[in-house]
Amino acid sequence: MIDRILIRYGELSLKKSNRKQFTDRMKFTIKRALKDFEKLDYLDCSMRFYIILNGEDENKIIPILEKIPGIYSFSLAERCDKDIDMIKECALRVLKENMPNKNFTFKVDTNRADKNYPLHSLEISQEIARYLFKNIDNLKADVHHPDLTLNIDLRDEGAFIYVKNYQGLGGLPAGSMGKVELMISGGIDSIVAGFLAVRKGLHVEAIHFASPPYTSDNSLQKVIDLLEVLTPYTEYQSINLLVVPFTKIQKAIYDYCRDDYCITIMRRMMYRIAERLGKNRGGNAIINGENIGQVASQTLESINTIESVVSMPIIRPLATMDKSEIIEISRKINTYDISIRPYEDCCTVFVPKHPQIKPRPDMAEAQEKKFDYETLIDEAITNIRIISLKTGKHFDLFLKDDIF
Ligand code: ATP
Ligand code: MG
To answer: Is pTM, for the whole model, over 0.85?
Structure first.
């Protein structure tokens, strides 16, 4: 009977020098995500990590593992001793339990990681296949395109037989790459950027600029719903959302600045605030859903004029993707249907008719000199609301003012 899940790390195996640090973090995340399954045991061997089921339902565990960054693939396996007769019995049992239909084809594939094993991998595969033919009627082999591959993994710690292989999320262990500030709107793009960041091992803190009463509670709820989709992928199954009151800044921009520069200046303000929050809260970069050429503020000239106000690195995971590729990811992670709900964003509320597509930094600066934006930024930051999102629930966090 299937008694364990065998986990393989992906890119992780490339990181020789700090491998242990990475694998420890992986294991920590896996155990934390599975903490409600009390009967599980864990076994750690070089290059492999085993979850021993002890009767827990693997079908409830698989969807959780599929969301853990850093797992390359995993298999449902049965362990047996390395004695060839035991392997034969085990292989027969596993195959019988997993036969898809009467007319399927199969092959046996042996990985002989234990180099001291007396038989070579091909010999093992052949011997096992012969035994299976003898014990199951009408079995058909196809070494090139089998319907089912019976894998035999011979390792120091035993023989592992499996047929079911699952693709993992890939990427790097949750939180292993440091903290970033994600600029999140209710649209399609930024949550996808956030997902890619989390998958790559970044600890994401989300920042949303809200302009009540021009933007409604529904808009904020949408951002919350989007971020909740991301929480199972994170180290602690949680994400903090910082809601920045942006109305006064936006009004000042529209009162004092040239129409065609409003979007540029608004985004410079967003970047300034995101950088300050990052610097004060341990963030090392800003991440957003910008995509080259998608809107006026995403031409190279705009990007240059906007990002010139900060020194923190800006990461744009979607920069060169096509919209259809972004949508494909959003469908896969189930954010698309939330993103297309109607909503007002602070960007859309005050859109000028003809935004600059080639704004200049000196022109933007000249406009900004017309009002005291530093004081407005201080005020916005002081009034930030922090919402702590956990899978299925969220609550406001009250932090000391000096945290900013
Ligand atoms: P999205 O689909 O994510 O809304 P977009 O294509 O609509 O992106 P813009 O509105 O120009 O593009 O925004 C570009 C990026 O700026 C967004 O992907 C997001 O990272 C950030 N952004 C936009 N609006 C907000 C907001 N209200 N709060 C925080 N970040 C925002
Ligand atoms: Mg948007």
So the answer is: yes
